[in-house]
Amino acid sequence: GSKVVTRQGIYVSADSIWSLVGTFPTDFILSVALSGEGSKVAALGDGKVYTSTNSGATWTSNTPPTGHKVLASSADGTKLVGGGGTLGVVGLMAASVDSGGIWRLLNLPDNWWHSIASSADGSKLAAYGHWGGLITSTNSGATWTSANFSMIGAQAYVVSSADGRRLMAYGWGIFTSSDSGQTWVSNNVPPGFWPSAASSVDG
Description:
Layout: E1 2-6, E2 9-14, E3 17-22, E4 31-34, E5 41-45, E6 48-52, E7 60-62, E8 68-73, E9 80-84, E10 93-96, E11 104-105, E12 113-118, E13 125-129, E14 133-137, E15 145-146, E16 157-160, E17 167-171, E18 173-177, E19 185-186
Antiparallel strand pairs: 1-2, 2-3, 4-5, 5-6, 6-7, 8-9, 9-10, 10-11, 12-13, 13-14, 14-15, 16-17, 17-18, 18-19
């Protein structure tokens, strides 16, 4: 059935009836990433990455090499990318190919990473940093390219379609790209800050 994440935990729906199937191991959760079918979950909190293979019924914890604040996952839940940083404190970005067991630092300048998005296979990534705007990768973070896109107010977030071609950046406005971030179009939404958005599989 469908799965949804709330502060209380992970709920699954069967015949429009929602049941709590998993709770988080800590109350201080900053970011959550789910696999495509929702059984594999990665959650950030208390300086650790908590992973689950049964929709949050049980958890395993490990400490990444940088204080993650945001997280993205491939559809199968094996490839994770996390970034850190806060206002006045720059952070690094790291990746895992074994569902968070082992992490490696990515070759990127320090930044305050607001958001990271991943394609279904984990090869295409998009990350929005406070300084420099949006960057993209087509090789799971081995190398990165500037998308020459930044948003008013510096703080923005990005989501991706399954194939990584269609991206949506939102914050002080909503912008979309159909070519993996090379060009962008404003959606001319009402003015204001948009705190949340989501994408379908095909974008």
